[in-house]
Amino acid sequence: MKNLKEEFLDMLNRYQGIIHKVSLIYFRNKEDREDNFQEVVYQLWKSYPKLKNKESTGSWIYAVSINTSLSRLKKNNSTVEYRDKIPEHENGEDFIATLSANEQLEFLLQAIYKLNPVDRSIILLYLEEKSYEEISGITGLTVSHVGVRINRAKKLLKQHLNHLDHDNR
After folding, report:
1. CB count in 10 Å sphere of residue 122
2. Separation between Cα atoms, residue 76 and residue 126, nearest integer Å
3. CB 149 within 8 A of CB 122
4. How far apart are CA 48 and CA 112, in angstroms?
5. Are 41 and 15 in contact (CB under 8 A)?
6. SS3 assignment for the chain
7. For the chain, which domains are there?
8. 95, 92, 15, 22: which is closest to 57 by C-alpha?
9. How far apart, in whole angstroms, are the C-alpha atoms of residue 67 and residue 46?
10. What is the per-residue pLDDT across 50-99, written as a single tens digit (0 to 9) for each?
């Protein structure tokens, strides 16, 4: 039988991708993401013995990761620098279609960074194909409020993406 530490490390190994995704959404430079990762792991370790429902481990990790990240943002009053320049394209083709997968991700991240921190969380969970009910459980918002926030965030993302596209023509 595994002891608590081994069980925690196994869980962390399986779900660490969640922590990395959340850190990427909130922190633009590598050092901040690494610091946040460590803080999230620390918070998970502190509360792991109290985790009762092991079937909802992924949702619990999302909730702890998001809450820890939001707390770090507030605590540090983080204002971060990030490159605003998107690779230029020479022809009149659809800008998004000319980007590689990595460039498209970079483009999307730039738009997501313009959202407020709560909407970043909601969009991340939405992109992870979580149901409105799951997002509600993780964020503490009502299911209907989640739907409203997703729709607003999608509109803002579209505006940001269109604005970035036009800036690069």
Report:
1. 27
2. 27
3. yes
4. 30
5. no
6. CCCHHHHHHHHHHHHHHHHHHHHHHHCCCHHHHHHHHHHHHHHHHHHHHHCCCHHHHHHHHHHHHHHHHHHHHHHHCCCCCCCCCCCCCCCCCCCHHHCCHHHHHHHHHHHHHCCCHHHHHHHHHHHCCCCHHHHHHHHCCCHHHHHHHHHHHHHHHHHHHHHHHHHCC
7. 1-81 (1.10.1740.10), 89-169 (1.10.10.10)
8. 15
9. 14
10. 888 877 899 999 999 999 998 888 887 644 433 343 334 333 344 444 44
Tally of residues, the chain? 169
Give residue 95's identity as a one-letter amino acid code: F
What b-and-e string marks burial along 107-121, b requiring 16 or more CB atoms within 10 Å of the CB? bbebbbeebeeebbb
Residue whose token pair is 């009502």: 142
Q: Which two tokens stand for residue 105?
A: 């991700």
pLDDT in tens, 104-134: 677 788 888 889 989 999 999 998 899 999 9
Q: How far is CA 33 from CA 38, 75, 142, in A?
A: 9, 15, 29
